[in-house]
Amino acid sequence: MSVMIILLIASISVAGLFLLAFLWSVKSGQFEDDYSPSSRILFDNETPSNKTIKP
């Protein structure tokens, strides 16, 4: 029974750390990019390859 209590405390602690990390990233502006998702489809980042089959 004591192992379950230890695991419960550990899992709540890890969940709290993830919540704090998420709140910190939102507060520091990690999710404030409104421009790139709408324009990312317009630009092609891949370079065409020059591989041709020569007979």
Task: Give a quick summary of the entry.
With 55 residues, the protein is mainly alpha-helical. 55% of the residues lie in helices and 0% in strands.
Structure notes:
- The protein has 55 residues and is an all-alpha fold.
- It has two helices and no strands.
- The chain starts with a helix and ends in a 16-residue tail after the last helix.
Percent in helix: 40-55%
* C-alpha termini separation: 74 Å
pLDDT average, as an integer?
A: 83
Rg, Å, rounded: 24 Å
The rough form would be described as elongated
Question: Would you tell me the structural class of the helices and strands?
Answer: mainly alpha
SSE series: HH
Largest sheet: none
List low-confidence stretches: none
Fold blueprint:
Blueprint: H1 2-27, H2 36-39
Give the tags:
mainly alpha, 55 residues, 0% strand
